[in-house]
Amino acid sequence: MGSGKTTIGKSLSKAMGSQFVDLDLFIENRYRKTIGQLFAEKGETTFREIERQALIEVSEFENIIISTGGGVPCFFDNMHLMNQLGTTIYLKVSESELANRLNYMKHNRPLIKDKNEEELKLFISESIKKRELFYNQAKLVFDAEQLLDENDVDNIVANLVKIIS
User: Fold this and answer.
1) How many CB atoms lie within 10 A of CB 163?
2) At 119, which CATH number?
3) What span, in angstroms and rounded, lies between the C-alpha atoms of 32 and 35?
4) Most exposed: 72, 77, 100, 152, by fewest CB within 10 Å?
5) Is the pTM value of this prediction over 0.85?
């Protein structure tokens, strides 16, 4: 959350002539409910199964860039599956920068909207500790710390295109 997956994914897909799929939006459109509603109604276990099935489905599309929710790599063998089927990229951002970014957009994020600054920092720290083992299994770990404007997005995308082409 806040690493720039969607922003960079959309730009990267344009630069590479690929289709872009945001897995969360794919799920929301399929179930006609928000991720928050699905999570609340179905519980985490069922939600993660829904996420897994959606990942398998979109992985079969050709010439595609997929932006996943932050938990996707951490369940089942999703990270292994993604690594087998394509080039995985972990957009690495420091905890302090994530806190800065998320503080500005937390009203749009159900998991963090009611957190004060300290609670947000703790949430980020705990999330990264739980998930980084999985994230670091990506084929490419890319520094996405500098993501302030369109020039930064263009630079990141240009560098990614060079690396993965």
Assistant:
1) 12
2) 3.40.50.300
3) 10
4) 77
5) yes
144, with CB counted inside 10 A (0-12, 13-18, 19+), is: buried
Range of the domain at 119: 5-159
Structural domain count, the chain: 1
Spatial distance between the Cα atoms of 6 and 9, rounded to a whole number of angstroms: 5
In this structure, what token pair is assigned to residue 147? Answer: 């993501």
Mean pLDDT of 44-68: 96
Query: What counts of helices (H) and strands (E) characterise the chain?
Result: 7, 4
Show the tokens assigned to 119.
């609670």
Rounded CA gap, 47 and 49, in Å? Answer: 5
Distance CA 46, CA 52 (A): 10
| pLDDT per residue as tens digits for the range 62-79 | 999 999 999 999 999 999
12-43 per-position pLDDT tens digit: 999 999 999 999 999 999 999 999 899 889 99
In whole angstroms, give the CA distance from residue 79 to residue 90: 11
Crossing angle of helices 5-16 and 150-164, rounded to 10°: 60
Which run of H or of E encompasses 57?
Answer: helix 35-59
